Write the structure tokens for this entry.
Amino acid sequence: MGKDRASRAILQEPENPEGIIVRQLTVTTAGTPQQFPDVPIPYDHEVFIEALDTNSGTVYVGNSSVEATDTTSSYPLLAGQGFAWKIKNLKQLWLNASVSGEGVRWATERYG
């Protein structure tokens, strides 16, 4: 019987999210990367990042402030373009922009 109880605990269905978190991040001064906020991303979930529709230039997402300033090692996005990443925490990413005041919208599922 103990084995059955343990098996049921392991096979529990995953919990559904309580909602979503949607925020924006902008770069105050072009060429000066901004770090994304400290937001844990649940295991096997993604954060979706999309360049703002109002952007006139390119925004760059990188794994560090140095990568975000290097167009060859960062991920470029034009207005309206987006992608999803599986990462442990949003703060692992940095944002840079070719035009001051431009940025991205990001979204992920909210738990707890």
Remarks:
- The longest helix spans residues 2-10.
